[in-house]
Amino acid sequence: MNRRNLLKTISISLGASVISTEVIAKLANDSFLYTSRPNLLHKPLGKAVTAITIGAGNRGTVYGNFAAKFPDQLDIIGIAEPNEFRNDRYAKQHQIADKNRFKTWEDVFKQPKFADAVIISTPDDLHYAPCMKALEMGYDVLLEKPIAPTEKECRAILSLAKKKGRIVAVCHVLRYAPYFVKMRDLIAQGAIGEIVSVQHFEPIEHTHMAHSFVRGNWHNAKQTTPIILAKSCHDLDIIKWIINKPSRKIVAMGDLKWFKKENAPEGSTARCTDGCKVERECPYSAIKEYYENRKRLGVLDLPEDKTKHPEVIMERLKTTNYGRCVYRMENDQPDHYITSIQFADSVTASFSMEAFTSYHGRRTRIMGTMGDMVGDMEELVLSDFKTGKSVKFIPKAEDVDGYKNSGHGGGDWLLVKDFVQAVGQQNASILTSTIDESIESHIMGFMAEESRKTGKIMDIQV
């Protein structure tokens, strides 16, 4: 194979080309783009899959946007959302008939089954009940992570899905991101020999932490789910998926160190809008984040042209949690969290979730017997011990199969695309994140939280 054909082959799909020492030597110091490899199980569908979205917040909107872009594949025909603004906006975007608009998930299931599938993108503590009811009524389900707040509920959903023969796709979208797919393929093909250990790092970014886990919907683990599941079950899952061996033991440590009342600066007030004397110098100022910089405004339910309504932003800061002082919330989520995991065949992994970073974007180091890999979702560098040469892989995630602005490294819409195919063909094997595949990493998360609270090394039993 000549150099041009070799590059073309591995750019399209690594499945047809083993990345050996000889190949790396030929490609040494090269950098090249690659896209996702096509799912060969996909087929033209006779009609669009129909779905009802339960929860029209951020994630429900992301999956709904796929339907708006590709109505021949997915047709959203129902919505359940108690927030009137979001319900109206979603119904307008998808031209949903009034008879199929509901305030609560319970209202959906009072009707006879009227769609192929249900998309559950409700708050974490409202995943279990609607999912169980959907399965009982014969719907297939696209279920936002985490599956449910407890191990018992996760196992119950798995059991009912098997009993009813329904498809449950868990939104572990990183499994569909070209970056992580490439990483897993390289390991599976022996590009770095036998895998020995993994170091994985999730920098949340300090203002994202303040937004989502101090002021936001996930600020209190007792009311939602622990941050290891709410934020980082993606990471536990991708570690498990990459290593592709059973997990055995886990130990975790972490705590809430900074966002507490005793750390509130002198002169600070209950809200950033209450005349706080240190607001101008505070890195967590709600006025700077939302009003001045116009960041993360989706949670404020603003009119469509938000730039013309700054007074509405300020009003929201005076009346919602998003304007409150980060040191005076009812938050309990750890702002730093580390875990160590033992897998089969003596493979180990460490995971660190950190709030206090100026950047975001997951970082991973993978150590093998014949090479290593280092990546940050922007690029993946494979180094070969025998030759001392390296190859750089750069995922083309901005436009994956025509899906522009698809989040999580291109994984969001690629997941939906596979889900549509799985439902349309009634073939769960098209998916890589079925509930069968996703249950273990959730159990890892539950065991990690138990370890963090008790100081014990926990056995993982799937």
Automatic annotation (TrEMBL):
Q: Where is the Gfo/Idh/MocA-like oxidoreductase N-terminal domain?
A: 54-171
An annotated Gene Ontology molecular function: nucleotide binding
Q: Quote the Pfam families the UniProt record gives.
A: GFO_IDH_MocA, GFO_IDH_MocA_C
Q: Which residues form the Gfo/Idh/MocA-like oxidoreductase C-terminal domain?
A: 184-456
Q: Which InterPro entries match?
A: Gfo/Idh/MocA-like_OxRdtase_C, Gfo/Idh/MocA-like_OxRdtase_N, Gfo/Idh/MocA_Oxidoreductases, NAD(P)-bd_dom_sf
* Name of protein: Gfo/Idh/MocA family oxidoreductase
